[in-house]
Amino acid sequence: MLELKAINAGYGNVQVLRNLSLTAKPGQVTCVMGRNGAGKTTMLRTIMGQVQAQAGSITLNNTPLHGLPAHEVPRHGIGYVPQGRRLFGELTVAQNIEIGLMTRHKTAKTRDYVLSLFPRLRERLAQRSSTLSGGEQQMLAIARALCLEPAVLLLDEPTEGLQPSMITLIRETLLTLKATGVATILVEQRVDAVLSMANQIAFVSNGTVAETLENTNLTPATPQFQTYVGI
Amino acid sequence: MDFGPFLLLALMEGTVMAAVLALTAVGLSLVFGVMRVVNVAHGEFFMLGAVIAWFVTHYMPGPPAVGFAAALVICPLLVGGVAALSDTLILKRLNYDPEATIVATIGLSYIFQQAALTFYGPDARPVEAPFDLRIQLPWFGYSGYKIAVVVAAIVILLAVWLLMTRTRAGLIMRATQLDRTTARAFGINVDRVYAAVFALGAGLAAVAAVLIVPIQQAHYLMGHDPLLLSFIVVIIGGLGSLRGTLLAALVIGLSDGVISVFFSPTLAKILATLLVAMVLVFRPQGLFGVKQ
Q1: Which phi and psi (to 5°) does residue B60 adopt?
Q2: Where are the domains of chain B?
Q3: Run of H or E residues at B241
Q4: Residue of B nearest to A51 (CA)
C-alpha cells in the first residue's frame, strides 16, 4: 500500500502541495481529479522523487520513499507513465522496453507478459518509438512502466488526445492490472473513464485532497465533478 | 617528387591527423551529447594523456614497446579518473548548468595546465615510438607507426560505436542523453552515468594523445590545437552526433593534411575556421545534428 501523509512540496519558493494525504491500496484504482494547476502532476512527481517533499511522508508497505534519490524510487516497484508519454523517441520500441526491464532486473518472461497485453507493440519492436502513432506511443509508455512489475502504477492522463478505441484498450488493460493486485493512481480528466475504473476518486484542489469519494452510485452529474473539475 | 606521390603523402598525413582528431573529438561530442556540457578542459585532458605517457615510458623499465603499452592502459585510466573526480567535485555541484560548466571547465583547464607546468616543466619532451618500422613505397618511405596509429584509432572508434549501439551501458547513456528525468524514473543513476561519460570522453582524448606523442612531443601547452580542432569538428558534424563527428574529423583531417603540405598549416586552420563560420550561419545544428 502506498501512503502519502501530509505532503508539502513545490518548485523553489513556490509551494504546490499543501498537507496532501492519499492512499493507494493493492488491487484498487485511485483516480485523482482536479483543475489545471491543482497539483496532480506535482503529486506524482513527488512520489517519484523528481520533486522533493519538504514535509510529510511517502511510504510503500511501510518502507519510506521520501528523501530517496529519484532513481531509487522505481526500484521499489513504482511504475510511472508520465504526462505526454516521454518515451525515449530515438530508441526503438524494444529498447524502450529494455530500459523498463533493466530497472528491476526483470527477464524475458516479464517482457513476454507485457507484450501479450499490447500485441501491436510486438509487431513494431524494431521501429523507432517516435514514429509510432499517439495510441501506440501510449501503449509503449504503459508497457515500459509495466516492465518493472510494479506494485504501484502511476498514470498521468493516459487517455489524453487518444481515439475512443485506444481509450477502451487502455481501460481494459488497467482493469486487468487491477485484477492482478496492482495499486493504481490515475490522474484523469475524463469522467466516463474515471467512473468505469475507479474504486476511489480523490479531488485535488489548491494542492491538497479536498474530498475523497468511494465510486459507488456516482454519476457524471455528481456535484463534486462540477465543483472540483468544472465539468 | 611528382604531384601524385606528393598528394598521396599529404593524404596519408591527413589520415593520421584525422584518426587522432576523430578520437579526441568523439570524446568531446560524447560529453556534450549526453551531458550537455561544453568541456573547455578537453584539450587539457589530451595534454595530461601525453604528459603522463612521457612519465610512464620514461620510468618504465624494459624496451619502449612495454612502456608504450603500459601508457596506453594507464593514461586513459588516470585521466578518466581525474575527469570523474572533476565531475563529482565540480560539475555535479553546478547541477550541470550549461553556462556555469563552461566557466568551470575553463578554470579546470588552467588548473591542469599549471599542474603540468609545475610537475612536468616547460620543455617539450619526446616519447619513443614502440617500434621502428619504415614501409617503403615506390615513391617514398613512410612510418609504419603512423599507419599503426590509424589502425588503432579505427579499432578504438569501432569499440566506442559498439559500446554505444550494442551494449546495455550504451543504451543507458543514450536514454540519459534523450531525457534524464525519465531516465531517473526508470532507475538510471544519472549522476553515475555523467561521471562515466565524462571519464570516457577524457579517456578517449588521453588515448589519442598517447598515440600521437611519439610523433609530436609532449608539452604542457599542447592541448590548445586539439581543443580548437575538436570544436571545429564537433560543430561541423553536429553537436552530439557521433556519425557527424567522425565524418567531419575525416574532412578536417584530410584537408588539413593536404593544405598543410601544399600550402601552409596556417591556411589550413583559417579554412577550417571559415568552414565552421559557414556551418554556423547556414546550418547551425551541424551537418548531422538535430535542429532544436
Answers
A1: -80, 120
A2: 18-222
A3: none
A4: B181
**Is any Cβ of chain A less than 8 angstroms from the Cβ of B114?**
no
Residues of B in contact with A144 (CB under 8 A): 186
What is the pLDDT tens value at each position of chain B, 292 positions in all? 678 888 899 899 999 999 999 999 999 999 998 999 999 999 999 999 999 999 999 999 989 999 999 999 999 999 999 999 999 999 999 999 999 999 999 999 999 999 999 999 999 999 999 998 999 988 888 999 999 999 999 999 999 999 999 999 999 999 999 999 999 999 999 999 999 999 999 999 999 999 999 999 999 999 999 999 999 999 999 877 888 999 999 999 999 888 988 888 889 888 888 999 999 999 888 888 766 5
Chain B CB contacts of A100 below 8 Å? 186
List the single residue in A50, A74, A91 with the smallest CB-CB distance to B175. A91
Closest CA to A22 of A41, A1, A3, A49: A3
In the three-class reduction of DSSP (H, G, I as helix; E, B as strand; rest coil), residue A148 is classed as: coil
**Continuous segment of H or E residues that includes residue A200:** strand A200-205
Residues constituting chain A: 231
Instruction: Write down the ipTM of this complex.
Output: 0.93
Query: CA of A223: how far to CAs of A203, A230, B38, in Å?
Result: 12, 10, 55
Level-2 CATH architecture, domain A1-75+185-231: 3-Layer(aba) Sandwich (3.40)
Residue whose cell numbers read 521520501: A66
One-letter amino acid at A221 equals A
Search chain A and give the residue with CA nearest B174.
A91
Q: Which three cell numbers stand for residue A183?
A: 495499486
- Cβ distance B274 to B43 under 8 Å? no
- Which value, in Å, is the radius of gyration of the alpha carbons in chain B? 19
Going from N- to C-terminal start, the domains of chain A cover 1-75+185-231
Nearest Cα to Cα of residue B16 among B162, B216, B163, B201: B216
Whether the CB of B181 is below 8 Å from some CB of chain A: the reply is yes
- Tell me, rounded to whole angstroms, the distance of Cα B172 from its chain centroid: 22
End-to-end CA distance of chain A: 31
Distance (Å, rounded) from C-alpha B218 to C-alpha B48?
Answer: 9
